[in-house]
Amino acid sequence: MTLTRRQMLLSSLSTVALATLAGRPAWATIDPVGHEGGTLTFVISPSPQILTSAMTTAGAEQVVSAKISDSLFTYDFDMNIQPQLATSYDVSEDGKTVTFHLRQGVKWHDGTPFTSRDVAYTCMKVWKVLHGRGRTIFKDVTEVQTPDDHTAVFVMTAPSPGMLKSLAAQQTQLLPAHLYEGTDPMTNPYNLKPVGTGPFKFVSFVSGDNLVLEKNEDYWDAGKPHLDKLVFRFVSDPATVTAGLESGEFDLVNQSLLPKPDLPRLEASGKFDITTKGYEFQNEMQMIEFNLDDPVMSNPKVREALAYAIDKQWLVDNVFFGYGKVANTPLHYQLTQLYDETDVPRYDYDPMKAVKLLEEAGYKRGTLELTVDPLPYGEYQNMTANYLREAFRGIGVKLTVRNEDFAGFVKRVYTDRDFQFTVNLLTGGSDPTIGTHRTYWSKSFAKGVGFSNGSHYDSPEMDKILEAASAEMDEEKRIGLYHAFQKLAMTDLPVLPLVAVESVTVANKRVHNHTINAHGTYADFAEVWVDPKA
Amino acid sequence: MGHYLRNRLLQAVVVILIIIVGNFILLNAVPGDLVDVLAGRGGDMDADLMASLRARFGLDDPLPIRLLDYIRNVLTGNLGYSWPHSQPVLDVVLQRLPATTLLVILSVITSVFIGTLTGVFAARKAHKLTDVILSMVVLVCYATPIFLTALALMLIFSVQLGWFPLSGLTTAGAEEGILATAADMGRHLVLPVVSLSLFYVAIYARLSRASMLQVLTQDYVRTARAKGVSERGVILGHALRNALLPVITMAGLQITELFGGAVLTETIFGLPGVGRLAYDAVFARNFPLLLGILIVCSFIIVIVNLLVDLLYMKLDPRVELTK
């Protein structure tokens, strides 16, 4: 395919824009005004098992390792590209070659210079082979050329606009080729004593207890980081986390670790800064996945009936304590460029209509019995399933909630396919190609693969839209394709989106700049500073 | 004596073999494996990657072959590899053992000491007001669930008073040095040890009180008193030594129970212990790690039982160790 002149202009514009940015975006940050130094204690759960996210997509690994290791870009709240180790990039006319111009004078923590060899090695040997999401993102990359130390050229078989939205340290981290080349990356000892280019250097790690990082004095962004020390604590008991925040032992907590019922109390105390920003890279959605191989669920009238029987606002208010929004399309509302509910079929709470639809489908009141499998990850899926039991009772459907542990759930739903519908939590990611596509694309249905196309939805029309969108370089055409996607997804209803979840970060007020871009607390923390007096 | 030890060690080997085979089969009957969980955590793997991971982790061989491989490895001292940790299983377990060992040993010592003291005191004042009050306090300790005690202690002594740290075993990044580290660990362990001990204090108090009351009615106690031994000498030198036997039995059981049962305390106080590791390993379907923990713990339990038997012999010369 060829780019129109407009796109060429766009991509060259972005190069210029990036090139003129000397360091980082300054618009969102608060200057430390002389507050250099100090220690920040960040509590997370579970304990990370290794200290790099180059080969895993697990959350704890992402949070801690993004402080030590960098990637090519970061993204602002609207998912615009900001430079990290790549200062600019150009896309070829056919979209199949992307050239990254790398930052000069960057050193690994052991003093070795960072070069394009590191980029080529990590992409071809680690991301593309071992990283769950990387295997999708870089599937079309055939080669990374390194004409000189500061240029990396990605050669692809097809254009991949999604790739440019996925080059952040929280998931595609660069590894030092000189320490990994010729070894098995999965057993490399540096997975546990990482050497990165980031603002913080590894000091010590006690699995299940704590991780200590210290300031990188030779950090490429001079004058940063502001903190002397960054301490991670791994605490799995939510009550302990709240107690630790209140006693001041912990400065910062992210994600779903905090019991939501505790949030109003923490907020009222006035001692904390509570934000739902900084999760634009994740975009979690609570959804119902209908098993279309099940004779009852394959009936669209039944799926629609169940959709009308659910008061989603009730879920937002009572299960999520207001930290979320009713989901009317499969895309998270934080994907501001793509989210659009115009002309998308709506299923607003209407139990009478639900009863009518069920009767049309041949199920008289009280004759339908169903089973739901909530995802055993956090408590919210189970709470929603219990709400559904009561809500469905109102339309004469008897619902049984079946609870298993995580591995049992994955096997039942994705391998044995012995279920009717789930209440699931799906991560959309920074771009629909990363998370959302696999839920709706017929070719991603694969027995035994967790969180693939769980409903076994198979629509040639949908495939066409998704395949076109994943290779479309024109922003406007892409927006149009995703609008068609949202309409079709809500018409066919293989999956019923319930709540666009808002994750929460709670910080002691002495902590500043903890959320300045789409990565939130998954960012590198070079800008974070603490006020010792507060 | 040597004969006895040899026999016991032989028994231990058989017990551990049974543990390995039984658990290996049981664990593999559970739905889902390590790769399912790894794929699920990120929610983004494909079938090829999953198959290649299964091959690497050795999950694609038939069960009997994997079992034989495993036993052969264990016999050569190799407990396998924990892929998610990028480390050998033994290393992972040994990193977590100190926290649990400290917690268990300190709480056994604390609870045996305080419990026995309370029991003996209550027995001396049997059916008087002191005894009634002590019995009530003991009953409350016995009836309060550990997590409640733990949270209450935490709220009072960490959050309100700030006397003790909230969680963890050490202050992350604190200064080095054996003395400083020991003091730091001590401060971190006070609340976990107290909350874990309170329940057992109650048990030892009741046990030693009953045992003491019974022993005090024995002829030899009367004889001791008759020949003019001081009250203190009667209690400590004659009665207590015999009354301790059930307490020792219980302590042996408590140690073995705590190695698995300290999960709750470890979770609440964020201690990097074996209990939490095992709990997480179950949910991660990390079976090499889980089996490794079981084997290490069974070794400890076998040794503790042996020590309890030897202690019995020391306390009561009538006990003889036969085969």
UniProtKB/TrEMBL annotation, chain A:
<dbReference type="GO" id="GO:0030288">
    <property type="term" value="C:outer membrane-bounded periplasmic space"/>
</dbReference>
<dbReference type="InterPro" id="IPR039424">
    <property type="entry name" value="SBP_5"/>
</dbReference>
<comment type="similarity">
    <text>Belongs to the bacterial solute-binding protein 5 family.</text>
</comment>
<feature type="domain" description="Solute-binding protein family 5">
    <location>
        <begin position="80"/>
        <end position="443"/>
    </location>
</feature>
<keyword id="KW-0732">Signal</keyword>
<dbReference type="InterPro" id="IPR000914">
    <property type="entry name" value="SBP_5_dom"/>
</dbReference>
<dbReference type="GO" id="GO:1904680">
    <property type="term" value="F:peptide transmembrane transporter activity"/>
</dbReference>
<protein>
    <submittedName>
        <fullName>ABC transporter substrate-binding protein</fullName>
    </submittedName>
</protein>
<feature type="signal peptide">
    <location>
        <begin position="1"/>
        <end position="28"/>
    </location>
</feature>
<dbReference type="GO" id="GO:0043190">
    <property type="term" value="C:ATP-binding cassette (ABC) transporter complex"/>
</dbReference>
<dbReference type="GO" id="GO:0015833">
    <property type="term" value="P:peptide transport"/>
</dbReference>
<dbReference type="InterPro" id="IPR030678">
    <property type="entry name" value="Peptide/Ni-bd"/>
</dbReference>
<keyword id="KW-0813">Transport</keyword>
<dbReference type="Pfam" id="PF00496">
    <property type="entry name" value="SBP_bac_5"/>
</dbReference>
<dbReference type="InterPro" id="IPR006311">
    <property type="entry name" value="TAT_signal"/>
</dbReference>
UniProtKB/TrEMBL annotation, chain B:
<keyword id="KW-1003">Cell membrane</keyword>
<feature type="transmembrane region" description="Helical">
    <location>
        <begin position="99"/>
        <end position="121"/>
    </location>
</feature>
<feature type="transmembrane region" description="Helical">
    <location>
        <begin position="189"/>
        <end position="207"/>
    </location>
</feature>
<dbReference type="Pfam" id="PF00528">
    <property type="entry name" value="BPD_transp_1"/>
</dbReference>
<dbReference type="GO" id="GO:0005886">
    <property type="term" value="C:plasma membrane"/>
</dbReference>
<feature type="transmembrane region" description="Helical">
    <location>
        <begin position="12"/>
        <end position="30"/>
    </location>
</feature>
<dbReference type="InterPro" id="IPR045621">
    <property type="entry name" value="BPD_transp_1_N"/>
</dbReference>
<feature type="domain" description="ABC transmembrane type-1">
    <location>
        <begin position="97"/>
        <end position="312"/>
    </location>
</feature>
<dbReference type="InterPro" id="IPR000515">
    <property type="entry name" value="MetI-like"/>
</dbReference>
<dbReference type="InterPro" id="IPR035906">
    <property type="entry name" value="MetI-like_sf"/>
</dbReference>
<comment type="similarity">
    <text>Belongs to the binding-protein-dependent transport system permease family.</text>
</comment>
<keyword id="KW-1133">Transmembrane helix</keyword>
<feature type="transmembrane region" description="Helical">
    <location>
        <begin position="289"/>
        <end position="313"/>
    </location>
</feature>
<keyword id="KW-0812">Transmembrane</keyword>
<feature type="transmembrane region" description="Helical">
    <location>
        <begin position="133"/>
        <end position="157"/>
    </location>
</feature>
<dbReference type="Pfam" id="PF19300">
    <property type="entry name" value="BPD_transp_1_N"/>
</dbReference>
<dbReference type="GO" id="GO:0055085">
    <property type="term" value="P:transmembrane transport"/>
</dbReference>
<keyword id="KW-0472">Membrane</keyword>
<keyword id="KW-0813">Transport</keyword>
<protein>
    <submittedName>
        <fullName>ABC transporter permease subunit</fullName>
    </submittedName>
</protein>
